[in-house]
Amino acid sequence: MVGSEKKSLVFAYYVTGHGFGHATRVVEVVRHLIQAGHEVHVVTGAPDYVYTTEIQLPRLFIRKVLLDCGAVQADALTVDRLASLEKYIQTAVLPRDSILAAEVEWLKSIKADLVVSDVVPVACRAATDAGIRAVCCTNFSWDFIYADYVMAAGYHNRSIIWQIAEDYSHCEFVIRLPGYCPMPAFRDVIDVPLVVRRLHKTREQVRKELGILDSQKVLIYNFGGQPAGWKLKKEYLPEGWICLVCGASEDQEVPSNFVKLPKDFYTPDAITASDVMLGKIGYGTTSEALAYKVPLVFVRRDYFNEEPFLRNMIEHYQAGVEMIRRDLLTGHWAPYIQRAVALKPSYDGGVNGGEVAARLLQDTALGQYHASHGLSGARRLGDAIVLGYQLQRIIGKDIAIPAWYSLAQNELSSRTQLPNKEVVDNSSLTKENDYFAILHGDHQGLPDTLGFLKSLAEIQSSCSPQNNNKFQTREHLAAAAMFNWEEEIFVSRAPGRLDVMGGIADYSGSLVLQMPTREACHVAIQRNHPSKQKLWKHAQARQPKDGRTAVLQIVSFGSELGNRGPTFDMDLSDFVEDGQPITYEKAYNYFARDPAQKWAAYVAGTILVLMTELGIRFEDSISILVSSGVPEGKGVSSSAAIEVASMTAVAAAHGLNIDPRHLALLCQKVENHVVGAPCGVMDQMASTCGEADKLLAMVCQPAEVLGLVDIPPTIQFWGIDSGIRHSVGGSDYKSVRVGAFMGRKIIKSAASVELRSSLSNISSAQQINGFNPDEADEDSKDLLEMEASLDYLCNLSPHRYEASYATRLPESLSGQEFVEKYLDHDDSVTTIDKERNYAVRAPTRHPVYENFRVKAFKALLSAAPSNDQLSALGELMYQCHFSYSACGLGSNGTDRLVSLVQEMQHSKSSKFEGGTLFGAKITGGGSGGTVCVIGRNCLRSNEQLIEIQQRYKSATGFLPYVFEGSSPGAAKFGHLQIRLRS
């Protein structure tokens, strides 16, 4: 590194307390700084030897302080999101003031010229308070990582994200490493090549030292934190291979074809001496696999949110093969190793990122300015940026995205029906009969269905030897390999739904009004006799030697946009125990054990529910391709669309005739019992029974369809995505549901007490005066009897609620107090946490009034068209929105969108035009997601929606997606039965 003739500088280098990966890359940067004659103080929680084995110079100072905790792992492959947040609170939030004071004093004491952070948030703020410039050097930032954890824990933790982002904003710029995640808190970035540890020995030297022949194939098992109690077995490796084991404990026994490396063995040297590496994806592992061109067989880590971006990079350079967790633990390694050794890694970029980063840091410390706008990072991120900038991000919004970053998503979007606002030109699509003969059904001219058929044809064509597209997505290749293209395939379609009115009142029995969206999920399914089923290599390895058994294989298009595996497979016998279907509880645990593949419960769960509820037995193997254009986490029921499309396809392929209402109820069982989300039934009913340009009116007791309500031609509904990810399985939704059921139990109890008192008084009066009760007394008794046996909260009228029960309900109640007094809340899909405090009054009040609002809304839709009609409809939506907020299910993003609609509605131009937009409300389970807007069906309304989009983007940095239009439900669409044309 040039610059040793310049003055000696003092660097304070903060290293995050998350594994050794950060420390190993910091070593490379620090080594170059020290070689240039500078002094480096490393603030770290990692052991000294990580640094001292590579840097043996007097200018290195190590200060053992842990200022953050990174991600806490429940096991070697799973991040514990809630524990991570809790530990961060204890480590960095509660003692923040004392940490800041101590770090400012220490930085001044060493007279630091520059603070470098990888990627400790508080270090950036401490630098500013000490009057020192700060730079980050990283491939991810904790505000992005923790945002997903906050969604799991509840938005009340969002202040953690705000504080982290604000700390980072004090950085001058970020030195961004390849494989980077979105880092919205930094506006100024400088990209550098891979930061990779240097080699000490050649491949030949290491093999000679370990006694490995040149002809031998070597796997290096570089897997920190091995599963407890797990033993390596000889048969795990292909014939003739040996395995080098890193980090093995002293008492761990290994077979003869495994070799334990000494603890101080230098890992990069062992990697370059190997033919394939097996491990977890992290920056260090990925960079070394690419730099030394060693294919990596990797196992996905659950909730490790930087992984998708590193994975995209390593797969782009043809250096990675994913192994499912089940095959890691059961030893089915050989198919993956053999596939990996055939790869030819193609990375040809720089590997001198340590040197480049060190030079940038030196120049900055000497007074040069690399940032374009100084301290221009966002001072405080709102909900929409933080929670919206998740893996379901808007494609192509980053500036100068490298090829490895954008490729998978661009390829994916060309093959899946991702939502967009472009009008699909049917003439640009080759007609379906050029690809497939449609033996049954009608595509109904739906552009997304035509597109899906085209994508199936593209998948099939990739099997051709003439196809040399090396950059196909994993799901594309997996789908091509599982279908027998000469056989029949069944295709189903189910839309998402826009919750116009009703929302969370569905589980309390309310009337709801739901509109199926234009966006939908398609499922292609094929069944084959096990002997004819095309199996993936790792699924083949599980088959018994004496014959084939039925296997379920699923491919999910869109996995690159979320932290989940693209494929799932299981033996259908896993659903059977002692000749009977396994319990829903066992099924839930089966899928929950591997969160990266938990998504498969929405699809595979339909098979178990059909087995359990209808007694269906599945003897054939099943291949399923799921391609959903319903955006995830937006509150438009992406999960119901997947469940309904999957069950419709399974039913069609097996000749089952299931009534649409019954099918929707069966799909609800999938979500409630197999997935474990406590949703009502309106989502599945709307996706199944809805029709285009109509609202499905349904009373959720449990699912009585009243009919379809025509949307007047003068009225239009839109959905606007807030960018804040919604989850019906989230803790806030669950707690509100629990509070509502607590309220119902309290009302029933109060009515019972009053009824007993009333009967006692009547009996006493009869004995004393000998009179008979009048009709008023009888009516009062009947009313109290009904309320004492209240089956649904929505059967209680608002006036009775206010007259008799509103003041009897507590604002909130602890789970312990409730259980002690009432035993149970009588809800089969949620449980009470005795340690938690639950809001009761607002969650109880909401469905009582919401049912009344929905009834009024439905009646108003049939009124004569007028501004008064639209104003009244809009007012009902506003009331619903603010009732959600009172329950604790609001969010800054959705509130902002509703406020923008209000501003537009009451603007002078709208009043002059007679009004265009009239109301808006949060939808579905709340806590983010989509806002439903009502307005006049005219061009000006659409112009105002575009203006709202732009205002929202200006305020939050997020351009919201607009849902517009509708499409037929699954029952109206039916299914297609297709066969590939010759």
Automatic annotation (TrEMBL):
Name of this chain's protein: L-arabinokinase
A single GO BP: arabinose metabolic process
Keyword set includes ATP-binding: yes
Species of origin: Nicotiana attenuata (Coyote tobacco)
Gene3D superfamilies reported for this sequence: 3.30.230.10, GHMP kinase, C-terminal domain, Glycogen Phosphorylase B
Keyword Heme assigned: no
GO MF annotations in UniProt: ATP binding; L-arabinokinase activity
Keywords assigned by UniProt, alphabetized: ATP-binding, Nucleotide-binding
Lineage top rank: taxon: Eukaryota
The gene coding this protein: ARA1_1
Sequence ranges assigned to domain GHMP kinase N-terminal in this UniProt record: 602-690
Cross-referenced Pfam families: GalKase_gal_bdg, GHMP_kinases_N, Glyco_trans_1_3
Galactokinase N-terminal domain: residues covered: 483-527
Residue ranges of the TM segments: none
Signal peptide: none
